[in-house]
Write a structure and sequence with these properties.
- The structure is a single chain.
- The protein has 268 residues and is an alpha/beta fold.
- Helices cover 44% and strands 13% of the residues.
- The strands form 2 sheets. The protein has a 7-stranded parallel beta sheet. A two-stranded antiparallel ribbon has the order 7-8.
């Protein structure tokens, strides 16, 4: 409920939450009474879409059978929790190959998604990554392969994190780089698969493959880069979430900056 209060105070129009401790495996069932209160308040605040992010510990690409089974069970549980909460989307990281062959790793991810999507629930969005260590999903090709292996399930989509794309080597802070990125995305996945943006600046340079989020306009993407992204006609209809480092002061500054850019394009 605190997340809803913070969202109202900041003037948010959409909201992303964790439905449980993001850094642990154990969790309690959702309380039905609290769930109904949450859903009513979210509707009253006009927060749409509601997005839930997967916890960090599951690894849907893990070659370790025990960890893989536990990760799939976690994903299935999160799909169910999203359904109860009335969430439209569940965002998940693809996972880490941990030294295994990329093709086998991608197949495991696709298999886990196919199992989880057997249940009624939200759209599941694969988040692109910075490519740090053995992370999968830094390239649009890998995301496209996973969706194809999952038989192009209609509830599968992608969430593009601007910092991760930049850190993976996509020059989305320039007009030419952004157009090339969107053309590649359309070719490999289809623009209809892009359902959500994570607007984060990058504390590390282009192609660093080091995941460090930073405040809007204060990193290597810069304010001009965000003007290009937010104002692009193929992206303007998308909901966006900021995952910048927590700071009450900077949360307000980041929101003000993004809303000012959005307002400048609203009547164009």
């Amino acid at each position: 409920m605190k997340a809803l209060d913070r969202a109202r105070a900041l003037g948010c129009e959409t909201l992303q939450i964790f439905s449980r401790n993001p850094r642990g495996w154990r969790f309690s069932p959702l309380d039905p009474h609290q769930v109904e209160l949450f859903k009513v308040k979210a509707r009253e605040e006009g927060l749409h879409p509601l997005v839930v992010h997967m916890p960090y510990l599951p690894n849907l690409a893990s070659p370790d059978e025990g960890l893989y089974r536990r990760s799939v069970a976690s994903l299935r549980a999160e799909v169910e929790r999203c359904h109860l909460l009335g969430a439209q989307y569940l965002v998940t990281h693809v996972g880490k190959s941990m030294g295994d062959e990329p093709e086998r790793s991608l197949e495991r991810v696709a298999r886990s998604l196919t199992v989880a999507l057997e249940e009624e629930g939200p759209g599941v969005l694969l988040e692109n990554t910075a490519g740090q260590g053995s992370e999968l999903g830094a390239s649009l090709w890998e995301l496209g392969e996973i969706i194809a292996m999952a038989e192009n399930h209609p509830r599968l989509g992608v969430c593009v994190d601007t910092a991760h794309a930049f850190q993976a080597g996509y020059a989305i802070h320039t007009p030419e780089g952004l157009e090339a990125f969107l053309e590649e995305l359309d070719h490999l996945l289809g623009l209809g698969r892009l359902r959500l943006l994570h607007l984060n600046d990058s504390r590390t340079p282009l192609g660093s493959r080091v995941d460090r989020h930073w405040h809007i306009g204060e990193g290597h993407i810069g304010l001009e880069g965000f003007r290009l992204i937010i104002g692009h006609p193929l992206l303007r209809h998308l909901p966006a979430i900021m995952e910048t480092p927590f700071s009450p002061r900077w949360d307000r500054i980041n929101m003000e900056r993004v809303k000012a850019i959005d307002e400048a394009f609203r009547f164009i």
